[in-house]
Backbone:
């Protein structure tokens, strides 16, 4: 029996911690203002596991932990800015869906525009070359080219 005692104690501690988290979530769910703040913050923060979802929509364990952490901060009376600053300090600007414009994030903001402009330049160059090629193909044959073509056709018909 003595060797089972630590296991029973560990299960008790885990179940108590889960019950406490559930009680905290239930208390916050009862407070619509806190739940609204949680929802708003969760939609602004990116899930670091999924990367294409916010933590409100993600079911990843990390997203659940982050929501739990935000709930705890809301309960502790932290402002939205303090919560976001904490998340950025802990996980970097990548955790934000709208990272601030600064030297390190310029590529995130300007990259799509630069790629689009580059694509438009390549498309314009291609269309110009194609138009030139079509104009060259449609021009009439010179007298010399015409006589050579007729000679080639006569040689082909004679064979």
Residues:
């Amino acid at each position: 029996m003595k060797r089972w005692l630590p296991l029973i104690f560990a299960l008790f501690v885990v179940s108590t911690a889960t019950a406490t988290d559930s009680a905290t979530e239930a208390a916050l769910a009862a407070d619509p203002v806190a739940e609204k703040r949680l929802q708003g913050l969760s939609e602004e923060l990116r899930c670091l596991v999924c990367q294409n979802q916010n933590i409100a929509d993600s079911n990843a364990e990390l997203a659940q932990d982050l929501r739990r952490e935000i709930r705890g901060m809301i309960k502790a009376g932290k402002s939205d800015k303090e919560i976001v600053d904490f998340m950025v300090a802990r996980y970097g600007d990548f955790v934000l869906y709208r990272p601030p414009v600064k030297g390190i994030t310029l590529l995130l903001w300007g990259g799509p525009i630069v790629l689009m402009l580059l694509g438009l330049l390549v498309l314009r160059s291609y269309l110009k070359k194609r138009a030139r090629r079509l104009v060259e193909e449609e021009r009439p044959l010179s007298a010399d080219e015409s006589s050579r073509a007729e000679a080639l056709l006569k040689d082909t018909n004679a064979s």
Q: What stands out?
A: The chain has two domains: 5-100, 111-158. The longest helix spans residues 106-138. Residues 19-24 have pLDDT under 50 and may be disordered. The chain is about 70% helix and 0% strand.
